[in-house]
């Protein structure tokens, strides 16, 4: 047994890997207790957008922590939450008029599912079935796991999960997906939940905006609620504030988290159209939205989110995304030439490549070996099986991006 009592997430302690101790971070770099500078090539699980310890966000957190640290949010409010809600309704699609706070991407999904079922129950047409896209990942709480891909992540917990309708991932022109969705929508399900344009933990699988538009159109025609999970794709990852924008799609319910606070504090929101809010609006107390956690809309987290929103409103973030996208493409073009590198793909600032191995998928034996090589080379990369992806903070400079490329090249040559 190691000296630490900490049980880490998605970590097999039995492999005995060292667990680096990080003391501080700045921009795209993490600094360890033993004096190493580590490049954060995956934005610390896809959350850090503008860079670690961004001065505007740090200052907002500092000021808020000394003013109001926490407040029950059932029937009470505070200025940071109001600023975030006003900011979000101004910058997100205007049809999304309501903002419900929670604490993580998973809970934003739980809230979305409950809102969808609440909508149908309170409008007198109860519906319960949820449609999902094959290979999706929506989080690790029970509802979020239920709507995610069944497999190694959740096999032991199967008895807790509810049944869903799975729509196949697009192949070729995506007719397989659209036909299956059309057929499933005829059965009057409650909602279809989808990661727009990029399926993250499923292997950075990408599909074109036209397909998202076509899926949204099918849902609209059959009056099936569309839930877009932009927990990973939101806040610029795909080159636009939301991935949905590229498809001209406005969902009925939108989940955002991760980059909401610039990646500094845990906070999430689920945004909804007015009809969904109004289905719960009543003098009947039994129709209120029964969901909360103790820290819902924590003021310090909201202050961080308000600072992030101000950065988006006042700084040329979209220009930075375009620039990073171009540099990521150059990185991919370079890596694509390596022997053993198969498919490469990019959506905005997310770049991914597959290594050609017999045992592909999340449990590929390659992943632990790559992880070790990356860690020893002071680059934080966490392959999804035989898929290596790069998703850095938007402030990353050319030298660090080149170093990431060098390290991937070294590791690929070493393992293949
Ligand atoms: N949805 C998507 C698309 C995600 O990528 C993730 C996390 O990676 C989640 C939901 C869950 O978010 P969290 O880890 O904050 O609970």
From TrEMBL:
Q: Which GO terms describe its biological process?
A: biotin biosynthetic process
> Where N6-(pyridoxal phosphate)lysine occurs along the chain?
258
Q: How does it assemble?
A: Homodimer.
Organism of origin: Novosphingobium sediminis
- Similarity comment text for this entry: Belongs to the class-III pyridoxal-phosphate-dependent aminotransferase family. BioA subfamily.
* Sorted UniProt keywords: Aminotransferase, Biotin biosynthesis, Cytoplasm, Pyridoxal phosphate, S-adenosyl-L-methionine, Transferase
One short Pfam name that applies is: Aminotran_3
Primary gene name? bioA
Q: What is this protein called?
A: Adenosylmethionine-8-amino-7-oxononanoate aminotransferase
Catalysed reaction per UniProt? (8S)-8-amino-7-oxononanoate + S-adenosyl-L-methionine = S-adenosyl-4-methylsulfanyl-2-oxobutanoate + (7R,8S)-7,8-diammoniononanoate
Binding positions (pyridoxal 5'-phosphate): 105-106, 229, 293-294
- Which EC class does it fall in? transferase
């Amino acid at each position: 047994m190691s000296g630490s009592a900490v049980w880490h997430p998605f970590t097999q302690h039995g492999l005995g890997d060292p667990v680096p101790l990080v003391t501080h971070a700045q921009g795209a770099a993490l600094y360890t207790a033993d004096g190493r500078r580590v490049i954060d090539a995956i934005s610390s699980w896809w959350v850090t957008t503008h860079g670690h310890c961004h001065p505007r966000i740090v200052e907002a957190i500092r000021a808020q922590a000394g003013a109001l640290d926490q407040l029950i949010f059932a029937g009470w409010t505070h200025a940071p939450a109001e600023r975030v809600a006003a900011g979000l309704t101004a910058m997100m699609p205007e049809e999304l008029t309501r903002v419900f706070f929670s604490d993580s991407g998973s809970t934003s999904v739980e809230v979305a599912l409950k809102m969808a079922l609440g909508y149908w129950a309170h409008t007198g047409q109860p519906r319960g079935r949820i449609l999902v896209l094959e290979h999706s990942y929506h989080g690790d709480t029970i509802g979020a796991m239920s709507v995610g891909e069944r497999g190694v992540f959740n096999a032991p917990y199967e008895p807790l999960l509810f049944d869903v309708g799975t729509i196949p991932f697009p192949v070729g022109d995506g007719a397989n997906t659209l036909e299956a969705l059309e057929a499933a929508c005829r059965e009057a399900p409650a909602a279809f939940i989808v990661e727009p344009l990029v399926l993250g933990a499923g292997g950075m699988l990408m599909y074109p905006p036209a397909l998202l538009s076509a899926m949204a159109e099918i849902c609209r025609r059959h009056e099936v609620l569309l839930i877009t999970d932009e927990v990973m794709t939101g806040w610029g990852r795909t080159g636009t504030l939301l991935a949905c924008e590229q498809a001209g799609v406005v969902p009925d319910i939108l989940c955002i988290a991760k980059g909401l606070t610039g990646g500094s504090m845990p906070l999430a929101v689920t945004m909804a159209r007015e009809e969904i809010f109004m289905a719960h609006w009543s003098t009947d107390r039994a129709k209120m939205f029964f969901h909360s956690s103790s820290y819902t809309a924590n003021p310090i987290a909201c202050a961080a989110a308000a600072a992030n929103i101000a950065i988006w409103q006042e700084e040329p973030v979209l220009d930075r995304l375009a620039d990073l996208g171009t540099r990521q493409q150059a990185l991919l073009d370079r890596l694509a030439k390596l022997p053993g590198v198969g498919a490469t793909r990019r959506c905005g600032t997310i770049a991914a490549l597959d290594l050609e191995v017999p045992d592909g998928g999340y449990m590929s034996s390659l992943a632990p070996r790559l992880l070790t090589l990356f860690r020893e080379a002071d680059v934080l990369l966490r392959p999804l099986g035989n898929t290596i992806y790069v998703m850095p903070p938007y402030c990353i400079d050319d030298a660090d991006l080149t170093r990431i490329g060098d390290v991937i090249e070294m590791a690929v040559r070493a393992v293949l």
